[in-house]
Amino acid sequence: MTGTTEDTARPIGFFDSGEGGLTVARAVAELLPHENLLYACDTAHFPYGPRPLAEVRSFFLRFMEFFVEQNCKLVIVACNTATAAAIDLLKGAAFPVPALGVVQPGAAMAARVSTTGRIGVAATQGTCDSGIYPSTIRAIRPDARVIQQACPILVIRAEEGVISGPEVRAEVERCLAPILAEQVDTLVLGCTHFPHMAAVIADVVGPGVRLVDPGQATAAQVADLLEARGLRNPGPAPGERRAFTTGDPERFLEVANRLWPGGVGAAAQI
Hints:
peptidoglycan synthesis, globular
């Protein structure tokens, strides 16, 4: 199956509450450099973690309308909390454009790479409360023991663009202590903000714990889906990257340039 040039040039949409989903966009950009990317985030309502899932679901549905208006060929819900809030819709065909969440690819990778089945998940409170990671991982690997820990302070730090230094390391150590005490061999970065500080997290957990970035696993799934539907952009030009935020575009760009230098050139408010 091969799409028309007009079809393949349509953008891939990314949705998150803030800057965290840039880790997923970056993974897709590295794997599929010719794709046009449209990143949209709801910084006016950040953070999503403490909010009721029903409220997060309503925010996400409004953004889906925006992605459809922008003629996206695929939407990636680059937010674990939003994925948990809309998992039933993502599993079905509720939208006129296909949409993928980041939980299932990350859970599948964790289940596959863990040797002992003792898997940690660092996430937001909303994602932990939903139970989406334990249920998804155990559906793939019934013997798994999944230990969750909400790490809201790390979400805030990443959103501020503060992803290294002694204070961040101390906060990572405090957040991950309950997980590491359970002798996990795999840690899922269950919030898309956390891969921004993966270097610090890797140093804290040590070489005996495998880090799983759901964004990397999602990028591979995106490539497969686009190929199967004949929607992969063959290039040759590099893809265009546009960003939109419900908050302050200048503030968004300031942080984005620290988290992904050169990744986003301009942002507009919606």
